[in-house]
Each structure stands twice: as C-alpha cells, then as structure tokens.
Amino acid sequence: MQHLSIFPILIPLLFGAIMLLPPISRDINSQRITSIVGTLFLLISSAILLYKINAEGVQLYALGGWQAPFGIALVADKVSSLLVLLTAFLAFCVMLYAVAGQDKGGAYFHPLFMFQIMGINGAFLTGDIFNLFVFFEVLLIASYALLIHAGGKQKTQATLHYVILNLVGSSLFLFGLGILYGTLGTLNMADMAIKVGQLQGETATLAKTGALLLLVVFGLKAAMLPMHFWLPKTYASASAPVAALFAIMTKVGIYSIFRVYTVIFGEHAGELANIATPWLWPMALLTITIGSIGVFASPGIKTLSANLVIISSGSLLACAAINSEAATSAALYYMLHSTLASAGLFLLADVMTRQRGKAEDRFVRSRPFVQPRLLGFAFAISALALIGMPPLSGFVGKIMILQATQSSAQTMWVWPLILIGSLAALITFSRAGTTLFWRHNGSTAAEAEPAKKAEIMSIALLLLASPILVLFGGVISEFTLQAAQHLHDIQASAYALLPGVAQ
Amino acid sequence: MEGLYAFCVGLLTACGIFLALRGRTFSVVIGLTLLSYAVNLFLFASGRLKLNAAAVLGESEQYSDPLPQALVLTAIVIGFAMTAFAVILAMRARADLGNDHVDGTLPVQPSDASQKSGGSQ
C-alpha cells in the first residue's frame, strides 16, 4: 500500500481527535476501548510497514505530492520503521497498563497519549529537518500535559523545569535551523547532506555553528551530560504510564543525533565531516559516569530507573561517537532493549509503590508485599536485563557495543566505563532487592491492592521482550546491521531519496 | 539595514537569555517570549533581507525567498501556544508551591541565614 508510511502518524492523530469528541469523550470506558484499539491498529500497521520495507526497500512519501527537496517528504527506511514499531509496541503495553486505572488521575489522558505517539512517530519518519522541529513540538506539548497528569506538588515543580528547559531548547533549535537554511538553502535532510560538502570558509564555519546548536538541542532531549539534570526528577515524579512512555523520549534525541550527524554531517560533509565526534566523546563518557554515580545514590526505584536511563543514553551517545556501522547497529539493538526494559521497570516500580504504603518506592524497611513471588520474579528479570547479565538482552546489547570499539584508545575509555556502569547497577539492584523483598516487618498494608490482571500482562509483555530479543538475536542484529549500513551509505540515505539529483 | 537588524536580534536574544536565567517565573516567561521574538526575526533573515522584493513570482523585479516566511509563521504559532502553556503552568506552580520561584522554594538570603540556626533552605 502506497500510504502505509504515513499511517503511524495518521492513526494516533485520528484516534486522539475522535476521543476529544462526544460521545467518547464523556465516557472513560469507551475511551479506554478506543485507545486499546488505536494502539493495536498502530502496532499492526507498523509491523506491516517494517515487513514491507525489509522486503522492498525504502519508502519515500511526498506529502501533498510535492516532490523533495521542495515539499516535505516522509522517509520510512529500516532505522525509522524499526523505531516506529518499537514505539507502537511500547505504546500498546503502556496503554494496557494505563487502562487498569492509572488514566483516571486527570482529564484527556487518552487523547494526549495518542498525540504524543503521533509526535514521536512523526519525528522518526520525517525526512525534513523543519518538520522534525514541528514533530518535536507536537510530542513536547503533549508530554508537558501528560507529565502534570494527576497533579501534585512534585509534578508541578518537575514540569516547570522541564517546560522551561524545552522552550529554551526549541528556540535554540530554530536558531540552528535558521543558520543551516541560510547557509545551505534547503531543509530536506537528504538535500542538506549533498549540499553540505560544497561549503567552504566562512560559510562552513557558520554552518558548523548551526550544526552544533542542534547538537545542544538533541543533547537536551537525549539527556547528554550538562543537560541531563532535569531527567531524574522529571521521570521519578511522573505517573507510571507517562514515565514508561517517556522511556522512548530520550531515544528520539539519540535518533536525531544519529540521523543528523551520520547522514548530513557524516564522512562526506567536506570541511564539516564528523563535526560532532570531538564533542560527543567526552560528553558520552561523562554521561555514563554521572549516570553510574546517580545509580549509586538513588534512594528509590523510580530514581534508580531514571538514572539507568541516563546510563543507557550515555552508552548510545558513545556509539554515536564511535561512528561506525557496527556501533550504529549495536546502538539500534541496545535502544530496543533499554527502552522496553526501563519502561518495564517504571511500571513495576509503580505496582510495588502501591503495595508498600508510606514507604513508597524508597529502599527502607517496610511492610511485606501482597504478591511477593510475582513481584520478586519480575524484579529479578528486569534487574538482570538492565544490569546486562546473561542470558538477557542487556548482555547482548552491551557486548555488541563493546565489540564495536575500534582503536585501543576507544577500548580503553569505553570498556571500563560501561562495565563500571553495569557494576553500579548490579550493586544497587542487589541492595534494593534485599531491602524491598527480605527486610520487612508486620503484616501487609491494609490499603495495599494487588496488581490487576491488565497491569501484570503489560509488565510481562515488556519483560518478555528481553528474552525474545536474545532468542531472535541473530535475525534482529542482522536487521540492525543492514539499517546501520543504510544510514552510513550516503548513496542510499541521500542521493537515492532525491530523484533527479546525480552524484 | 543588516547591521541594525542584527543588532536588534542580538539585543533581543541577550535580554531573553538574561531574563530566562532569573529566578522568578514571571521574568522567565518574559525572557522566553523575547527569545522567541528574536528567533522569529532571525528565521526571517535567513532568506536574506531584500527591499522591494515580493515573495510572489512576477509581482516585482526581484523576488524574495518565501520559505522563511512560512517557517516564521509556523514558529510564531508554536511559540505562542507554548508561551500560553508556560504562563498557565507558572500560575499553577504559584498556586501549588506557594511562591513564584522556579525551584518552588525561595532561596535563603545571607542576612536571613545568619539569624536562623543551620538548615540550608
């Protein structure tokens, strides 16, 4: 089908808009059904899109029939369709969790959720850098409202920081885009990639300024070191389904870094070749370090999982800094793993919090759980996956990253930091597990409610993804390698997308 | 003209950044607004400044680039919505947290701190 590549944007838009209208807007149950049906549709269409792209190659969708580089084009290649499928799967699982009762905290949860999915999918699929900005804003404005969902002091304060930071980020994004348009004369990413090689002298310096401003913006989204301070508080205070959905938000920043600094400012960019690499190296390594320190210092599971998100961001940035096909492939695999595993932990943390009364998610002695075996088993699996121990997907992902280092200097820096990050996670998880499950007194809290079936199913789906990523590791890593090759091949990722432009 | 234009954009940006770094939500919101004005002017200039040049073909001897105008329009719409949201959020924060500081707590003045015993906040 010709229009398949725009479905991941249209389906959430349509379902979100329908849910704003009566009669569905008045009844939470019909909203829930609509949401589940919508995410299910999204999941199916994303799976078909991925299958089709694997079989037939890149799909170029010119919006309104205006051909690139003059119109806006959606580019569904292997990288973007893989991430769209990841988003769809995550959205389905998180929605399954939310319909069990977490969506009642405030109005418009379901439409906002859908609009956020639309923004994320649009950011993955678009081939135009200004359109990327627009989809960033779509996902951001939905995320602002979702973050404050269910209200409370903590959330208001965290949201205020998050909103102000991102508004400044948006302004910087526009400054960067203005500079790049002024120097390159185009906003289509493929066209930019071709034209950037011709820049020389002062114009090249100007374009470099714009490109590095964009790195600041993407770094803010991806929680790169000096811009990561908002993340732990924001993620820890958000309600569980929102925090779990936010697991993909940092990955949007990482994806943009890969797309812009591999395709546009990659090896073929003449004077501006690989301009981000010297900045990415120290930032990536310091991000892993600060994430590891944060993991050690975490007082509760939610903060712990937020700090683990920072470590995974750092590891992915290190892959972007290594800047090779193997590293990009490793990053894609690791992205799948870390998104699903950390979303699973965010949801699990919420279930645990509700069963521990006043102790909430803090690592202190408290009443025992209502369902200790179930929660213990889930906690052990998600801990194994996030630490990166065999036999789960974290192990495979980290091995792939470690193997991707090329020179001995890279190995010297990347190996110890990633392994120390794993050690920090291992120590904190064992400390947390012993306190949470073994050091308790008294009877179970009176107000504790056991996890509902839909919630258990949602967490199980997210955690099951980890062994599945290992079982089908060969197929998946083959696919991510092809996707990485596509991204690094300027012929495929730029010239092929512009009919009528010869090399 | 270019010099004056660049000066205005620079001044707006400098004021915007200065105000955005202040501690109270009101000045931060004003700072963000100034920053978005600066961005809009800057985007407009990215298509080069020309006099007597319409953005429509055949209307004047030379034509100007219509794309930055479209970009500015998009940026204005988005910036306006975001500012409105930030204002409402700031009011909500004032109500929830009891003060209008971005951190939710008023910083302790050195003169106050000497009177109280310990306690960082």
TrEMBL record, chain A:
User: What biological process terms from GO does the record include?
Assistant: ATP synthesis coupled electron transport
Location(s) in or outside the cell: Cell membrane; Membrane
GO MF? NADH dehydrogenase (ubiquinone) activity
Query: In what way does this protein cross or attach to the membrane?
Result: Multi-pass membrane protein
UniProt entry tagged with the keyword Cell membrane: yes
Mind telling me which InterPro entries this protein's record contains?
CPA3_Na-H_Antiporter_D, NADH_UbQ_OxRdtase, ND/Mrp_TM
Q: Which GO terms describe its cellular component?
A: plasma membrane
Domain spans labelled NADH:quinone oxidoreductase/Mrp antiporter transmembrane: 128-427
Q: Which domain of life, per UniProt? A: Bacteria
Keyword terms, alphabetized: Cell membrane, Membrane, Transmembrane, Transmembrane helix
Pfam families, per database record: Proton_antipo_M
Ranges annotated as spanning the membrane? 6-24, 36-53, 79-100, 107-126, 132-150, 162-184, 204-223, 235-258, 278-297, 304-324, 330-353, 374-393, 413-438, 459-477
Q: Which family is annotated?
A: Belongs to the CPA3 antiporters (TC 2.A.63) subunit D family.
- Protein's UniProt name: Multisubunit potassium/proton antiporter PhaD subunit
TrEMBL record, chain B:
Q: Which residues cross the membrane?
A: 6-21, 28-47, 67-91
Write out the entry's keywords from A to Z: Cell membrane, Membrane, Transmembrane, Transmembrane helix
Annotated Gene Ontology cellular components are: plasma membrane
Q: Name one Pfam family in it.
A: Oxidored_q2
Matching InterPro entries: CPA3_antiporter_subunitC, NUOK/Mnh_C1-like
How does the UniProt record describe the way this protein sits in the membrane? Multi-pass membrane protein
Compartments annotated for it: namely:
Cell membrane
Q: Provide the family line.
A: Belongs to the CPA3 antiporters (TC 2.A.63) subunit C family.
Protein name, as recorded: Multisubunit potassium/proton antiporter PhaC subunit
